[in-house]
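BUG-456 | component: ligand-complex export | severity: low

The export step for zinc ion jobs runs without errors, but we want the raw record kept on the ticket for reference. Input record follows.
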Amino acid sequence: MEPTCQPLRCFSESHRLELLNDDGVQTVTSVEQRKVERSIQEVLSVYQQVHNLPQPALLREQHYQYLKKGLRHLSDAYECLDASRPWLCYWILHSLELLEEPVPAAVASDVCQFLARCQSSTGGFAGGPGQHAHLAPTYAAVNALCILGTDEAYGVIDSHGNECWHPSPTREKLLDFLYSVKQPDGSFVMHVGGEVDVRSVYCAASVASLTNIITPTLFEGTHNWILSCQNWEGGLGGVPGLEAHGGYTFCGTAALVILGKENMLDLKALLRWVTSRQMRYEGGFQGRCNKLVDGCYSFWQAGLLPLLHRALFKDGDRTLSLSSWMFERQALQEYLLLCCQNPGGGLLDKPGKSRDFYHTCYCLSGLSIAQHFGNKDLHHELVLGKEENRLDASARTQARESGRDGELERKTQATCHLSSWGPPSPAGSPPMTWPCTEGGSADMKREVLESPVDAH
Ligand SMILES: [Zn+2]
């Protein structure tokens, strides 16, 4: 492990030079930016007064208690997410996974039974029991079930003729649902009669690859549609012609990675766009040009770097660093640990905002990306603060020792389990199965540069 860098960047003399210079021209956005910078200055100043030795700590126990409670009880504030309930399961389970906190068997079983109630008879999952199937909760539910990884969890995706499930879910139905939202131009709508955007493509690609139901026709034309979302800025918009945005850019790029077409993007333009989204003073990322920092973009933006790194490596880029992602990893960790933690547990967008499970999930995911580079022989860590701040440590160690990547392992587990029952076979669409291989595949170099965290 590399030594912890001290002193902290945000306490250095030169850090103030990174504050916004508006050249004497005030705008609505420059005023907002100043406000955020002032609130961060205040947080840093209080921290400095209280701590002689700056050793930012990840509040593991507080986050764990907050997450554990959320699996059973939600406050009234979550009423507005009544159509996103599988997301709450996913955000909490993924956060617990990053913190390496096991889920008790009884709780895991309850989550499975709840998600089963969200499943639609038309295939796919809805945002809550009795609602219509939708690609976003389908992504959340399938990923949450694969995190649990129990027979019961896989049984919710495909009962494999087990009569204890009524109606019995199958991957054929899931595939039917994906075809029902596929559009002739290769894009997908979020639900039958719903809107098209690049989130839907990623949700469909993630779900289809995890459950091993990709067919030659399911994603026909999809890569060309995604490529048309990359605009002059270098990032991707929600649909062709829209402004580049971190969430959409991650979704489009990750979908292309799943489809094996990421090298068709203008990778250099994308790299320039995403690295320019890391904020000079704050250290965190903004979602779009001229917007404010937000903790959740620690994943949506920083998560692009491992994907880009791998794609550029495949392109034979010899100038790539083999020890670090191409962003300021310490600055991001400083922002997340000093500015985005609620003392009572849970993480947040920026100082002054409330904690929530969405930001907890993606702030922790971003922290993990900033801490870990590559895996196996090329694994480098940069863990700011104490040793206990390291996320996903044992999974990392196991991955290194066994020569396998943690995420790849989960995908392998899920696809092996589901494909052991045989692939679904819709008429005229023979499935294109993922190779159910151990991590030590033929192209070891490619794997070395796999994303260390969630390429979800
Ligand atoms: Zn956010």
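Assignee comment: Attached the raw record above. Strands lie at 347-348, 355-356, 372-373, 380-381.
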